[in-house]
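User: Hello, beginner here. Can you help me understand these amino acid letters and fold codes? It all follows right here:
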Amino acid sequence: MSVNVREINNPNAKPNFKGVKWVIAGIAAIFLAANSFTIVPAGNTGVTLTLGEVSSTPLSEGFHLKAPFIQSVEKMSNKIQVFEAKATAVSRDLQTVNSEIAVNYRLISDKSPDMYKNVGVEYSTILVSPVVQECMKSATAKYNAEQLITERETVSTEVKSALDEKLNGYGIYIEKFNIVNFDFSAEFNNAIEAKQVAEQNLLKTKTEQEQAKVIAKTDAEKKVIAANAEAEAILAQAQAQADANKLLEESLSNKVIAYEQIQKWNGVMPKVTGSDSGLLINVGIDEPTASAQAD
């Protein structure tokens, strides 16, 4: 390394700042260039501020130039976000209801500048949270405690519609609203359990009564069938006896008539008139011969 003896010996000589100036200029250029552009990440919208004034035109995803030191860019997320909270409300029958809710929502890109200008980046806390609580209380008050359990889907749909009505104007779109859980007081839970037990006992009693009716009906039908069968058997037996009596009566009548005819017969056989000679012929008794007559 060479040393300039003249500079050492001359205390009045000026130092050489030429290299330092170039270094400072380079740093300044790099700093200026770094502040001359911005990159908006995917799923976000850029809001341009020019000396604090919000531009109504949002910046889309990607690379953008901006005026250094004069303009700045705020990133607003347009991704689906989840808001989870607990809400306390009162039902129509004055039961205290503690609910766990979850809201999926997102900020519409075109509304990002207005949201930043009117609410700010903390819109979830400032805007979404109180509106969710309000809509949940309003919907809960329309139903009694039991309906909140049995008609949960209907309640969720009603709350989502109310949220859309209140938040869509700000550029917030509700993707989904869920009531994760309902929690009631211990007294109400005990009352519900007692009611369920009573309903089950009533159902059991009705079932047993229906079964008893079926059994009784079956027994009665069996008895009717048996009685009909017995009556038919008796009727058939009586008919058979009547038929037998009739046959016996007819048989006896014929015999009596024959006997009476025998008793009244005078021993003379009936005569039959021949159709050709006109002679009378005795049938069944031999006529006496001539020799017998001579005798």
User: Anything to note?
Assistant: Residues 89 and 137 are 5 Å apart (CA to CA). Confidence is low (pLDDT under 50) at residues 277-281, 283-295.
